[in-house]
Amino acid sequence: EVQLVESGGGLVQPGRSLRLSCTASGFTFGDYAMSWVRQAPGKGLEWVGFIRSKAYGGTTEYAASVKGRFTISRDDSKSIAYLQMNSLKTEDTAVYYCTRLVVTAIAFDYWGQGTLVTVSS
Amino acid sequence: EIVMTQSPATLSVSPGERATLSCRASQSVSSNLAWYQQKPGQAPRLLIYGASTRATGIPARFSGSGSGTEFTLTISSLQSEDFAVYYCQQYNNWPITFGQGTRLEIK
Fold first, then answer.
1. What distance in Å separates the CA atoms of residue A85 and residue A88, rounded to the nearest whole number?
2. CA within 13 Å, CB half, B89
3. Segment A29-67, tens digit of pLDDT
4. In Å, what is the CA distance from B82 to each residue of A114, B7, B38, B49, B105?
5. Of A92, A112, A120, B72, which has fewest CB within 10 angstroms of its CB?
6. Burial code of B46-77, b = ≥16 C-beta within 10 A, e = fewer?
7. Which of B3, B42, B46 to mutate to test the interface with A (most CBs of A within 10 A)?
């Protein structure tokens, strides 16, 4: 059974950093691209960023709202994806979901339960 | 950035009836379009990708159609568990963008 479990969320002050982790199980993690999607309280879905599998270079793409502040990485030996968030802003407050991508499309076929990040002084 | 616009914002339908949800892209996304269902307090669930391909385990009452800029998600006979918020998402161009959602409620 595919499982994605996020951790690392919490309350953080504006300007500070936080790192989220996504621990995967039930599939060959290294074969898949992974992505982060967030949802502000009571709002819709916003794509954050994406990391390709090593077979496709392990390169990344980011939304303009987080580019230069957020970094996605992966450790295939541990089946973990990371979201390093720096220079956090109040507008980054959201539930952050880790997602797995469909092999043949940039659509998200498995989602974690989400972890809440609250940026507030 | 491609803007995805969903309509209507809220759709009221009776159980057993058909629901038709629309999604429009500000420019062509070919068939690179996905649909998700989200229930309160839960993560979204992938329903459709490639505009019309059902994801694993999705019932046949869910169908997607369209290409270019106009897309439709049809639920042929609404079940109680189908009342939720539905989002479309394009993946033809970076950045990936979602529509604002359609809330499907019981009439």
1. 7
2. 26
3. 999 999 999 999 999 999 999 999 999 999 999 999 999
4. 22, 17, 10, 18, 9
5. A120
6. bbbbbbbbbbeebeeebbbebeebebbbebee
7. B46
C-alpha dist (Å) from residue A118 to A17, A88, B55, B82: 12, 10, 32, 31
Q: Which helix (H) or strand (E) holds A67?
A: none
**Per-residue confidence (pLDDT) for residue B30, from 0 to 100:** 97
User: What are the backbone dihedrals phi and psi of residue A54, each rounded to the nearest 5 degrees, phi first?
Assistant: -60, -30
Residue of B nearest to A4 (CA): B43
**Backbone angle region of A77, left / alpha / beta, with phi > 0 → left and psi within -120 to 50 → alpha:** alpha
* Rounded Cα gap, residues B47 and B36, in angstroms: 5
Q: Note whether A111 contacts B: Cβ–Cβ < 8 A.
A: yes
Residue found by looking up tokens 């106009």 in the block: B70
Q: Where are the beta strands (DSSP E) in B14-69?
A: 19-25, 33-38, 45-49, 53-54, 62-67
Give how far Cα A38 sits from Cα of A25, A44, B60, Å.
21, 9, 29
Residue B85: φ, ψ to 5°: -100, 140
Q: What are phi and psi of A31, to 5 degrees?
A: -85, -10
Tokens standing for residue B3: 């803007």
Q: Do A46 and B100 touch (CB under 8 A)?
A: no
